[in-house]
Amino acid sequence: MCANSTTSSKEQRTRVFIASANAVLKQCGATAVEEFQIKFPFDNLLVDHLNNWVKFAVLSRAKNLAIELEPEDLRCCKHDRHVFPFELFDKQSMSRLEAIHLGFVSLKAQPNFSGFPNLKALDLRIVDVSSNDLQLVLSSCSNLERLSIVMCHPHDGIRVSLPRRQHLHVAHSCINKIHFISKNLRTFVYDGFMVPLDLSESLQLGHVEMKFPSLTLEHAITELPRAMLHAQNLNLSAGMTLKVFYLPEGVTKFSHLKYLQLRLYFSGQDNLLSLASFLKGAPLLEELDIHFLRRSFPLNDFEKLSIRSLPPCRHGHLKRVLITGFHGARGEIELAAHVADNSTRLQALVIDPVMRGVNRNMLTLTPEGRAMYWDLARKNAKKYLARRVAQGARFDVL
């Protein structure tokens, strides 16, 4: 059941939706349904009807339940939420549900809540829920495989064991600490501020995507490996302030990481070479993609600046490196040179001056000026890097 967006006034649109929904359900009668969805911007006029519709879903033996009530303007009714009616479910109906999607509702679990024993997927978006209620719900769903928490603000930390969970998504949520115990977790997606995180017991963690508005290199190198010890692929996007940083001896490393993608908005261009710490912190890394998302200025001969280097740190597993948004600046050259000099098994180094995933017009240049800018970046790449790439390895400047 979905809204008709062409109805003129908000109140009229809501009344039309209510009448249409009730007519549809009356026509369905006692027909069994596999999936039941309510999708309409929240309005107080809906309150008296929502529980009746959920009751219909229960009586219809629905396995998938979706209640999506996100309003058109969150500011107008941020304190008004429909309370999810746990009381309408008995043990039999709870055991039937396999997927629940809730948007803009309030979760207040009863003390005697017995859980959804066969629930495999739970999606919470803009849900008002306390840390205690969230933990109670999650700990009572022992077969949960997929969990998504978006724009929910329980504020306190969450610690829960979900042995069957395979996919976890947390975004734009105020959670002070995240500790999930799940040996079968395979995918983790996070978008938000850096908080204490513990997925160290997830032995099969294959793919991780993380996006931070702000992150220090020190946290990225020292905290993330402890949090995700078994991660194999990591996509990391962040606004990062780069400072001189040397990886201390004896710290936990990304001991299983094979693929690393960095998407960086950065400040501290002169310290780009410090990103080489990722190589030392991921000794088994085989593929490295670096996407610079900030304009830099190509190094010119008249600047007479030396190309700095770090002490040798051989990396025996890195095979392929891609660097985009390479503008031929001093720091970019130093980082790429360090990678080329120390990667003993390198098979391919690819340099692309074009920034990926950003508006090309951010360079504020004419098409002709942009072409000249990129040509100078390509010239610097060939001048400073070509001779450093190991014999037999492919060196491409796009």
From TrEMBL:
<feature type="domain" description="At1g61320/AtMIF1 LRR">
    <location>
        <begin position="30"/>
        <end position="397"/>
    </location>
</feature>
<dbReference type="InterPro" id="IPR053772">
    <property type="entry name" value="At1g61320/At1g61330-like"/>
</dbReference>
<dbReference type="Pfam" id="PF23622">
    <property type="entry name" value="LRR_At1g61320_AtMIF1"/>
</dbReference>
<dbReference type="InterPro" id="IPR055357">
    <property type="entry name" value="LRR_At1g61320_AtMIF1"/>
</dbReference>
<protein>
    <recommendedName>
        <fullName>At1g61320/AtMIF1 LRR domain-containing protein</fullName>
    </recommendedName>
</protein>
<dbReference type="InterPro" id="IPR032675">
    <property type="entry name" value="LRR_dom_sf"/>
</dbReference>
